[in-house]
Every structure is written in structure tokens, then in C-alpha cells.
Amino acid sequence: MANSLMEFALLCLTSLFTMINPVSITPVFSSITADLPVQQARHVALKATMTAFAILVTFALTGSIIFKVFAISVNSLKIVGGVLFFLMGYEMVQARMGRTRIDKQEEMEDLEEYTNNVAITPLAIPLICGPGAIATVIILMEQHKDILFRSVLFLSILTVIGVTYLFLLFAKPIMDRLGESGNKVLMRIMGLIVMVIAVEYFFGGLKPMLRDIFEIVPLANP
After folding, report:
1. Can you list the residues of the chain whose pLDDT is less than 50?
2. Could you give the CA distance from residue 81 to residue 86 in angstroms, rounded to a whole number?
3. Confidence (pLDDT) at 107
4. φ, ψ dihedrals at 71, nearest 5°
5. What is the DSSP annotation of 163-199?
6. How far is CA 154 from CA 9, 28, 87, 147, 161, in A?
7. How far is the C-alpha of 168 from the C-alpha of 23, rounded, in Å?
8. For a Cys-Cys bond, which of 16, 96, 108, 151 suits 114, CB 3.0-4.6 Å?
């Protein structure tokens, strides 16, 4: 039980960290908030991460309802999620920051309105809380019905969002330290991890479906 819990916790943290990818969000945040006062930039970081956390928890709690309403199976979501994660991972390995390409926002007269807008879109959605992260929490939530495992998932979401918040708070010094080359190296490493997770998800969903199609009975454990 303890080993299974540790393995699940590691899976949750690794999956969420690679899907949210705070490193790739940092340069975007730095660009968007470059002309804002320090206090306003911190407000944007806090609001963006809190919004993303609320969205992920909502989808984790309502994932089973979505399955029932749209007649979606967990295995189907694993296959689609695996394909989606693989494509994301491939772009990361190529060091393409595709999901972080955003035109600089036009300057707005109302600073408060501007900070609220950018905190929700594009930062909270889709940069922090994108399709990959949403699919991840739904899949992980459906893997275990035990309250302890689900508590680990929520704690993992909080941990990764907390780390993301720290990355955003220290975006400028981090970008100065990493430089363009360092950022690309880290992105490629995380891209490989995403692709490995994608393969596991894909075949984890495909095998049960193939068994149902061909009516294969799994071998019993000796």
C-alpha cells in the first residue's frame, strides 16, 4: 500500500509538472509583466495560479460526471491523452515553445483591468491550465477510488501550482540565470519525460480496449 501510494504520488507530480511546465511559462510571464510595477506583477502571478488551481480541482472532481454525460470511458481518454501528450512532448524536445507564443498585449489605460485579464487569459488558461493538465487530472482521478490516493492527487496539484507560483515570482532572475540555451535544454529533458508518460497512457488505455474487442481474458496471477 505504501509503495503504491509513493508510486502514485511520483506519477502525479511528474505528470503535472511536465504538463504545466513552469519553465516554459516563465518567459511569457516575464514578457507580459515587463512594464508592470513589482506589486502588480505579483498580483498577476497569484491570481493566475489560484485560477488554474481552481480549474484543475473542478475538473478532477467532475471528471466522472463528464464521463457519464458524454459516455466517455477512461481508456478512451487515456489513448487521446497519450496522443496529445506525445505531440506536446515532441514539440518540447524540438525546443519549440508553441503554446507560449503570444503577441504582446496592447497597453491598456486601466492597469487593474489589464492585470486581471492577463492573469486569467493567457496565463491561467491555457498556459498553466491547458488541455494536457486537465486531461491528466481527470485520468489520475479515475485511476483510484480510494480517498487517500485522491488526497495525494489534490496535494500534488497544490504542490505543482505552488512551484509554478514561485517560478512566476522569480521570473526575471530565473530567465537571467538560465538564458536561452539553458531554457531549451530543460525543455528538451521535460519533453522526453512527457513522451514517456504519453506512451504509458496510450498503451494503458489501448490494452483493455483490445481485450474487449477480441474478448481476451487476462491471465490470472499465480
Report:
1. 97-109
2. 8
3. 47
4. 55, 50
5. HHHHHHHTHHHHHHHHHHHHHHHHHHHHHHHHHHHHH
6. 10, 26, 26, 10, 11
7. 9
8. 108
pLDDT at 13: 94
In whole angstroms, what is the distance from residue 184 CA to residue 94 CA?
9
For residue 216, the model assigns a pLDDT of 62
The answer to whether 47 and 116 have CB atoms below 8 angstroms apart is: yes
C-alpha cell at 115: 492585470
What are the pLDDT digits (tens) for 131-190? 778 888 988 998 888 899 999 999 999 999 999 999 999 887 877 777 767 767 766 777
The CA-to-CA distance between both ends of the chain, in Å, stands at: 20
Q: Which of 137, 157, 151 is nearest to 62 (CA)?
A: 137
Q: What is the DSSP letter of 216?
A: P
Residue labelled with grid coordinates 530565473 = 174
Residue 108: how many other CB atoms lie within 10 Å: 12
